[in-house]
Amino acid sequence: MSEEILKLTSLQLDALKEVGNVGAGNAATALSQIIHRKIDMTVPRVAILPLGDVPDVVGGPEIMVAGVYFRVFGPAPGSILFLLPRESAFSLVDMLMGREKGYTRSLNSLDESAVMEIGNILSGAYLNALSYFTRFTLLPSIPALAIDMAGALLSVILIQLGQMGDHALVIETEFSSEGDGVKGHFFLIPDPGSLGTILASIGVKE
Amino acid sequence: MPDLIKVGMADYKVGKAPASVITYGLGSCVGIAVYDPVTKVGGLAHIMLPDSLQARAADNPAKFADTALPAMVAEIIQLGGVKTRLAAKIAGGAQMFSFANATDIMRIGERNAEAVRLVLKNLNIKLVAEDTGGNYGRTVELKLDSGIFKIKTIDKGEKDL
């Protein structure tokens, strides 16, 4: 077992959590401005999980979700996946489009663009914070959207990590808007080689 | 109520009738059901990658098509399956997200399915049915009493292979 993520110290994990905290805070502020609702955010979870256990974080591999996926470009490449339970995606679209709550039951192409734009704004806000910390320019790709089983969407990222090891370092934050039935999970998953680069840039490299 | 044996990502499980083997939410991964209709012994693998030789970490044989299949087939034979009677059905290998210029890693589903077909051929196990590709997830279940390979999707319905 030679995976670098299994050798992370608690100091390094705390540092990553702090980066996640600021990134997610930025993203939550951006989201609450778009939908004019208060957004609650949990303290980011930094977990090192066996690949097969990652779908359990969102409630199991068969949960129906909307996922917005980005590649992150720059000196510390990685992936971002913003996952929303399908009903949360519908609620978000209702709010954005000024529709009555519960109106949206499927997404037309305009609705899909709206969900991707939310993903865009969140990932941009998150990466801004990460760029500030690391002094790297980190940019998201254009988004791609899919609505399907959580396991199927997560597999895309897990397969990339699977070439390097059997564990994933997941920086995960949960968002929710009390009473509006909106919640989501935001995953930042650094490519295996990026982790050392990020740790060095924030000054906690061994 | 027959046992339902669950298979996680990068894992495989074998069993005997009346049990069923199931794996949830296959995306670009491929589910491979291998079955002996006489002894009603079989297994289901959920592989993530085509080839252990190209990977940096190959500690878990169940993760790769080329190592998961021989290991699972050996266990099926140990449980009473007969090599010459074994037949396979496969599903999965989707491309979940589409980008304008898809990189190689985005086409991993297709490559997984290709690798599985090749490994089955090398093992002399006939591939009798498949449901691969597309851009949607699948939950698959091998019913060991009948050999039926059940495929469930969100918007494309259910089918039995």
Write out key terms for the chains shown.
heterodimer; A: 206 residues; alpha+beta; Chemotaxis protein chec; 8-stranded antiparallel sheet; globular; B: 161 residues; 60s Ribosomal Protein L30, Chain: A; 5-stranded mixed sheet; 2 helices; 18% helix
The portion of residues forming beta strands of chain B comes to: 25-35%
Tally of strands of chain A: 8
Helix run count of chain A: 5
CATH architecture of chain A: 3-Layer(aba) Sandwich
The end-to-end span of chain A amounts to: 19 Å
Largest beta-sheet details of chain B: 5 strands, mixed
H/E element order of chain B: EEEEEHEHEEEE
Largest interface: A-B, 36 and 34 residues
CATH class descriptor name of chain B = Alpha Beta
By secondary-structure content and strand pairing, the structural class of chain B works out as: alpha+beta
Low-confidence stretches of chain B: none
Considering DSSP H and I runs of 4 or more, what fraction of the residues of chain B is helical?
A: 10-25%
Structural account:
Chain B: One of its GO terms (molecular function) is protein-glutamine glutaminase activity. Chain B: Its EC number is 3.5.1.44. Chain B: Belongs to the CheD family. Chain B: This is Probable chemoreceptor glutamine deamidase CheD. Chain B: Keywords: Chemotaxis, Hydrolase. The complex is a heterodimer of chains A (206) and B (161). Chain A is an alpha+beta fold. Chain A has a single domain (2-201), classed as 3-Layer(aba) Sandwich (Chemotaxis protein chec), CATH 3.40.1550. Helices cover 41% and strands 26% of the residues of chain A. In chain A, strands 1, 2, 3, 4, 5, 6, 7 and 8 form an 8-stranded antiparallel β-sheet that branches. In chain A, a hairpin with a 4-residue loop joins strand 7 (167-177) and strand 8 (182-190). The longest helix of chain A is centred in the first third of the chain and has 26 residues, at 10-35. The mean pLDDT of chain A is 84. Chain B is α+β, with helices and mostly antiparallel strands. Chain B has a single domain (4-151), classed as 2-Layer Sandwich (60s Ribosomal Protein L30, Chain: A), CATH 3.30.1330.200. Helix content of chain B is 18%, strand content 35%. Chain B has 2 helices and 10 strands. Chain B has a 5-stranded mixed β-sheet, with no helix packed on it. In chain B, strand 6, helix 2 and strand 7 form a beta-alpha-beta unit. Chain B is globular. The chains are: A alpha+beta (206), B alpha+beta (161). The interface between A and B is medium-sized, with 36 and 34 residues.
